[in-house]
Amino acid sequence: MRNVPVVCLTVVAEAVVESRLLRDLETAGVRGWTLTTGRGRGASQVDASDWEGANVRIDTLLSSAAADRVLAMLAELYFPRFAVVAWVSPAQVVRGDKFT
Amino acid sequence: MRNVPVVCLTVVAEAVVESRLLRDLETAGVRGWTLTTGRGRGASQVDASDWEGANVRIDTLLSSAAADRVLAMLAELYFPRFAVVAWVSPAQVVRGDKFT
Amino acid sequence: MRNVPVVCLTVVAEAVVESRLLRDLETAGVRGWTLTTGRGRGASQVDASDWEGANVRIDTLLSSAAADRVLAMLAELYFPRFAVVAWVSPAQVVRGDKFT
């Protein structure tokens, strides 16, 4: 086995942006993702009030450089307009050649 | 962009405690969270037997100090009584000013 | 409280292998797990085409050595045949004595 360091990028967003977000993530270089649905509460940057409702959680494994590119896209197109939070965490995969 | 280190606190609990747990988490300082439902199996501390059934998974981003406060609350009120597991993992957010 | 380092092993698999995968994970030493359902897209190693469809996400906390044993099982039995991705990430639990 070969353990390769990658980053796990997690994006939590209000459910209404799901289709648009998946399309933009793939355009930004995301080739594989896992989506689960749930609900959440969070402080929105759109207005001063809290946001609460149905959301989607998308996880994807990326190189650190690719994650930075995706985060830049989210910061430009999503953070100012939608209830979206994104974070990266360190991970190791056994098969690293798939994640670029 | 500004990457800020935070911790991701994940709490997995038997589904029956969902309302109570969310209320207690918010009282302990959790301002934003994502909840997904699923099922699970785990060793319970309540009795010697394994627990298996519907559960909820709650993820929240916090400062390290805030996570410690939440874990102390869970250790006092939940671990002795319910099937609850909690762990923290390192994460980085682009917008750190929301997570205190 | 006592914080103990563990690893979180996450396995994302096409939904059809759920029963078989849970059985094999438990045989390989996994005593507790959380399963959520969703959908995903990913590059398959089975053939050249992308895979997209219903999937399951299984998270489990393990020692680093136990995670290596589970990953070896996945690399032997699952990666060549099914759409399965697995990664490990660092975590800390308050109660470490349950995770061996």
What's the short story on this structure?
The first copy, chain A, has 100 residues and is α+β, with helices and mostly antiparallel strands.
What can you tell me about this protein's structure?
The structure is a homotrimer. With about 100 residues, the first copy, chain A, is of the alpha+beta class. In chain A, about 25% of the residues lie in helices and about 45% in strands. In chain A, strands 2-3-1-4 form a four-stranded antiparallel beta sheet. The interface of A and C includes residues 1, 37, 90 and 94 of A.
Core attributes:
homotrimer; alpha+beta; globular; 100 residues; 4 strands; four-stranded antiparallel β-sheet
Which two chains have the most extensive interface, and how many residues on each? A-B, 26 and 21 residues
Give the count of helical stretches of chain A: 2
Distance between the termini of chain A: 18 Å
Residue stretches of chain A low in confidence (pLDDT < 50, at least 5 long) are 44-48
Rg of chain A computed from alpha carbons, rounded to a whole number of angstroms: 14 Å
On the 0 to 100 scale, the average pLDDT of chain A is 87
Shape of chain A: globular
The biggest beta sheet of chain A, please?
4 strands, antiparallel
Strand content of chain A: over 45%
Q: How are the strands of the largest sheet of chain A arranged?
A: 2-3-1-4
Element string of chain A (H = helix, E = strand): EHEEHE
Fraction of residues in H or I helices of chain A: 10-25%
Structural class of chain A: alpha+beta
Oligomeric assembly: homotrimer
Count all strands of chain A and give the number.
Answer: 4
